[in-house]
Structure formats: C-alpha cells, structure tokens
TrEMBL record:
Lineage: Bacteria, Pseudomonadati, Pseudomonadota, Alphaproteobacteria, Rhodobacterales
Annotated keywords: 4Fe-4S, Electron transport, FAD, Flavoprotein, Iron, Iron-sulfur, Metal-binding, Oxidoreductase, Transport, Ubiquinone
PANTHER family assigned: ELECTRON TRANSFER FLAVOPROTEIN-UBIQUINONE OXIDOREDUCTASE (PTHR10617), ELECTRON TRANSFER FLAVOPROTEIN-UBIQUINONE OXIDOREDUCTASE, MITOCHONDRIAL (PTHR10617:SF107)
InterPro entries linked: ETF-QO, ETF-QO/FixC_UQ-bd, ETF-QO/FixX_C, FAD/NAD-bd_sf
Name listed for the protein in its UniProt record: Electron transfer flavoprotein-ubiquinone oxidoreductase
Protein species of origin: Sagittula stellata (strain ATCC 700073 / DSM 11524 / E-37)
Length: 548
C-alpha cells in the first residue's frame, strides 16, 4: 500500500526465501565478495520450518558451492545403498530391474537427507560469511522503481485488522531495497507469480505442471530398518485415476520417510489425494514395514513438474527467479534440490559481475543463459518428455517410451519425439463431476492411516487467528458454482482440510479454515476457476516442520 510510510533499508542483493536456492545465492555472493551487503528473508519461524522435500540429494550442487561440506559437518550422512523400483497391484508388486534404466536414474552416490536440516546448516554457513538472515519475515509486496523495475520488497507486516486494513496496532513493516532482488520462494510463490504475470515471462512457454507431495516421518521397528534403502513405486492405488507414485527412504535412527505424489492434472474431481496416500500405506509391502511403528511428522507441498519446456523467462528488470520459482525438478529422477542450489550459485555470480560493472536494476541475462545452457539445462533437457508422455499416454506406455527417450537423449543427444507440449493447465484438466463416478475411500484405522486434521497436527502448523485469511477468493460466489459443477473439489484436493462446505440455515456455505494451511499452494494451482489466490500470512506462521 503506497500510502503507508515505511523505513527503507538498502542492500546490494535482497533474497526472498530460505530454501536451497536462496541460501546458495546468499552464500555464493559473500564468497565472491565479503563486502557485498546481502539480506535473506524467510517467512517461516526459522530457516527450515517450511522446507519439505523427499529427499534423495544429488550432492553436485553442494560440491559446487561448498566443496568441503563434509569437513564442515553438513547433515548429509546417509548414502544410498540400495535402489528399488516397484509397480504395485492391490495385493502384490512387480520389481522393475535397475539395469534397463538410464544411468541418470541411478541413486548410488546420492544421499538421503532432511532438506530442512540441510537448509538450517546452510543458513549457519551463510551467517558465518556475513549474510543477514531474518526468519519470521514474510514478504507481502514488491516495490517497483521509477522505470518499472523491481527494486525491493515489503517485509514484516504484522497485526493487520481482520478485514485486511491497517489498524492502530498494525506494524507496517519495512521496505528492503536492492540493486537486484532474488525470488526463491519455492513452488507458486506469490511474488514470483506477480512478476511472471507483470512481465509476461511465460510467453511462448508451456504451462507449468504440478504434483502434490505428501510426506510422513515414521519411526519403525529396528528389525525392519534398512539404512540407505530407497524405494519408489507406481501403480496402485492411483491406477488410471491419476499419475503419481510413492517414495520410501530409510534414513538413520530407525526413521523412514514415507511419501506420496499425485500429479495435479487428474480429471476426476472426486479424487482425494490425501486419502490415496492413506490407502497406499495399507498395501502389504508398506503395512508390513510400518506395523508396530509410529508416525512422528506430516506435511505436504506442491512440486513443479513441467520441466525444461515450462521454465518461464527467469529475469526481468531488477529481479531474478531462482529454483522452484522457475521449476527445476527432474521428474523421473524425483530431484530438484541440486538444481535449486546451482541456480542460486549462477544468479549470485551474474549479480556479482553486474554490481562490479556498476549496473543495477537491469536484467541478469547471464544468469538465464547459464541455467538453460549449463548444468541445469543439461540435467532437465534429456528428460523433458517424460512428464507429457505420462499425461498423454498413461503409465505403461510412458515407462517404455520415456525410457527410450531418456536413453537416446543421454547417449545420442536427440529425441525421436522432439519436445512434447503439456497442453492444458492442471486447473483446466479438471473434469465435471457428472462425468465421473465418486470414489469410495476406506475409513482411516488410526494405526497406519489417519484422518486429515489429526495428521495436520503433526505438521505443527499455527496461524494467528485474528489476522485476515491469507487465502483470497477473487469471487466469493465461485465456490458454490464449483460445488454444483465439480462437486467442490477444494474440500478434497487440500491436504490440510482448509476448505469445507457447511450447512447453515438450510443453505450451503463455503468455509476457509486458513489456520490449518500448510502452505502447499495446491488450491492456487488446482482450483478449476483459478479463483483462489494464495498469499503470505504474517511472518512466522504456518507449519513448523522438524526434520522434513
């Protein structure tokens, strides 16, 4: 709000987001020039509080950024020892051997990690170099310069009135200005979304595609624990209803990460991704592993899956998009953290060169060139057709054709298929309820499977209830129209139970329980009418993930 007077602070580079991309950029800037002033703003209560990832980490990003990370005590200590891939039926499984898979799919030499803890460690490295890191500081607005360039952000607004207005107890926040602003907000960040729209950065690109990743941490029977074992599955319970699959990673201390991904381009609006995850755990292979164990944490996060052809232009005057703000996940490898780190490093090097040349507020074109032509592009381009194949032709054909395409790309440098498009957005892919049969889901048993609100309590989510809802409806009438046409999919696609339809005085009403929100952004992506706009709540609110 331009009429609000705020104090402004000047920096060389302002970074929004304390994930692997933002932290890598901050560290690299200070490595290049300790005199550069660098500030990093993180909306979570601490760095790592909002980080959720699988994760099997390819250490190439860390190797490039901090070559002596082992000596410095990085929490990257569980190497992958065994790699399994299964196609599941309701009762059985078929193992896909490793030998026909392209070498890029091999997880040996990779590490099972908590990316939350890796980011906490990276923040320590940054602070030792002199990076100013401020957690609990949500960035709610961009600040534009006289020539239309991005020159900063507004951060630290607290105590808004319930209607969103400024009251007597509102803290108006501060403006943080930089020669360059890096947006490293992760998937579907609100400021990145604004920049992409304002500067038309997606022009000529394929639409971005997404998945919803849900994850639980389990402590299991030590007799069943196999440290360093990585298992991925496809097939049951999703079948033909949706693309997706699972991951089971055995880390240390008898803990296992159990995760499930549903591609958000599913058509049947009756699909309930959270319940598909809960049903998955009742497969005999998974149920046997988890029996006698206990779930200790839960969370959910959207994943960018569009790949190489969906990456928007990454730079505009004064601003650069990093990591998942662009979408750098290698879908078949189920990895993106290494590319996020490499993107942060590349953006830092481009900004450093620009600042040394007395530039400011222009486009860091060298950054974009490095991403598309360097290590990140070389990682993403060979696998660019895997996701559109799956979307167009289903699991079995895409396994065969995608494997062939990855082999020809990696060995011969070309694809028989060229570059396939994605077509519709995930929101547009949603079909009408009348065209599909409702899906019956078994009731959670409280041992292996859990109701949604109980599980949300294991995300340790908290929002100040007096603040305005950070989930904004463009048109309050649309949810009831969605109920009539699409059976109200928001009450199912949200993995945190934020949205519900309640009966009041004989009428249906749409209720937003924003206190439950785990900041996954699925609603912003999947709502058929694109009527829900996810914005940041006040700083420090949201999930408080321990070891995700």
């Amino acid at each position: 709000m331009s009429e609000i007077e705020r104090e402004a602070m000047e920096y060389d580079v302002v970074i929004v987001g304390g994930g692997p991309a933002g932290l890598s950029a901050a560290i690299r800037l200070k490595q290049l020039d300790p005199e550069l002033s660098v500030v990093l703003l993180e909306k979570g209560s601490e760095v790592g509080a909002h980080i959720l990832s699988g994760a099997v980490l390819d250490p190439c990003g860390l190797d490039a950024l901090i070559p002596d990370w082992k000596e410095k005590g990085a929490p990257v200590t569980v190497p992958v020892k065994k790699d399994n891939f299964y196609i599941l039926g309701e009762e059985g499984k078929v193992r896909i051997p490793n030998w026909p898979m392209p070498s890029l799919m091999d997880n040996h030499g990779k590490y099972i990690v908590s990316m939350g803890n890796v980011c906490r460690w990276m923040a320590e490295q940054g602070e030792e170099l002199g990076v100013e890191i401020f957690p609990g500081m949500a960035c709610s607005e961009l600040v534009y310069g006289d020539n239309g360039e991005v020159k900063g952000v507004v951060a630290g607004v607290f105590g808004l009135e319930p209607d969103g207005s400024y009251g007597p107890n509102t803290e108006p926040g501060m403006e943080l200005h930089g020669k360059y602003v890096f947006l490293a907000e992760g998937v579907r960040g609100s400021l990145s979304k604004e920049v992409i729209a304002k500067y038309d950065l997606s022009k000529g690109k394929e639409p971005q595609k997404f998945g919803l990743g849900m994850k639980e941490i389990w402590e299991i029977d030590p007799a069943k624990h196999r440290e360093g074992t990585v298992t991925h599955t496809m097939g049951w319970p999703l079948g033909s209803n949706a693309g997706g699959g699972s991951f089971i990673y055995h880390l240390d201390n008898n803990q296992v990460y159990v995760g499930f991904v549903v591609h958000l381009n599913y058509k049947n609006p009756h699909l309930y991704p959270y319940m598909e995850f809960q049903r998955f755990k009742h497969h005999p292979m998974v149920a046997d592993l988890l029996a006698g164990g206990k779930r200790v944490a839960y969370g959910a996060r959207a994943i960018s899956e569009g790949g190489y052809q969906s990456m928007p232009k990454m730079v505009a005057p004064g601003v650069a998009l990093l990591g998942c703000s662009v979408g750098m996940v290698n879908v078949p490898r189920i990895k993106g953290n290494h590319n996020a780190m490499l993107s942060g490093k590349a953006a830092a090097e481009a900004a450093y060169a620009a600042i040394k040349a007395d530039r400011a507020g222009d486009e860091l074109t060298d950054y974009e060139t490095e991403v598309r032509d360097g290590a990140i592009g070389k990682d993403l381009k060979p696998v660019r057709n895997v996701k559109p194949m799956w979307s167009k032709w289903g699991m079995a054909p895409s396994l065969a054709l995608g494997g062939l395409d990855m082999w020809t790309n990696s060995l011969l440098g070309f694809s028989f298929f060229g570059t396939l498009g994605h077509g519709k957005t995930d929101a547009e892919a949603t079909g009408k309820a009348s065209d599909f049969t409702p899906i019956e889901y078994p009731k959670p048993d409280g041992k292996l499977s859990f109701d949604r609100l109980t599980n949300v309590s294991y995300s340790f989510t908290n929002h100040e209830e007096s603040q305005p809802a950070h989930l904004k409806l463009k048109d309050p009438a649309v949810p009831l129209k969605n109920l009539a046409t699409y059976a109200g999919p928001s009450q199912r696609y949200c993995p945190a139970g934020v949205y519900e339809f309640v009966e009041k005085d004989g009428d249906k009403q749409f209720v937003i329980n924003f206190q439950n929100c785990v900041h996954c952004k699925t609603c912003d992506i999947k709502d058929p009418a694109q009527n829900i706009n996810w914005t940041v709540p006040q700083g420090g609110d949201g999930p408080n993930y321990p070891n995700m």
